[in-house]
Amino acid sequence: MNLYKVKKCILIIKRSKNLFKKYWDGQPVRQIHVVCSKLQSAAHEQIDLFTPPELDERRHVLDETIDQIRDRFGKRAIFHAYSLMKGGTYLQRAGHIGGHKGASY
């Protein structure tokens, strides 16, 4: 499964940030690693009772569009602006296999 084709990635990011803020003791952090397991196809998607269906559909369309852009033009075609800030590593690591040195195909 392509890492970038995970639906509702915004939810994963928000929950990861909340966990970080909850347990962070103020010390410098070099890297954070987030792992998702037991992912299922979108055919078995859980409906969120607290999100309006229109908003959920818009997010789904946005995720699909981002996936299509990355499939067609590569990972570097679309990314968060904070990756351009000092310390951002996304662009540098985008061509690596799993973020490690080596060419991705």
Explain what the structure shows.
With 105 residues, the protein is an all-alpha fold. It contains three helices and no strands. The chain is globular.
| Class of secondary structure makeup | mainly alpha
Order of helices and strands: HHH
Helix fraction by DSSP (H/I, runs of at least 4): 25-40%
What is the terminal-to-terminal distance?
Answer: 14 Å
Strand content range? under 5%
Spans of 5+ residues with little confidence (pLDDT < 50)?
A: none
Largest sheet: none
Average pLDDT value? Answer: 76
Q: If helices are DSSP runs of H or I spanning 4 or more residues, what is the number of helices? A: 3
Please count the beta strands (DSSP E, at least 2 residues each). 0
Short description:
It is globular, with a radius of gyration of 16 Å. By secondary structure, it is mainly alpha-helical. It starts with 8 loop residues before the first helix and ends in a 12-residue tail after the last helix.
Task: Describe the secondary structure blueprint for this structure.
Blueprint (H helix, E strand, L loop, with lengths): L8 H15 L29 H21 L16 H4 L12
Using brief descriptors, characterize the structure shown.
105 residues; mainly alpha; single chain; 0% strand
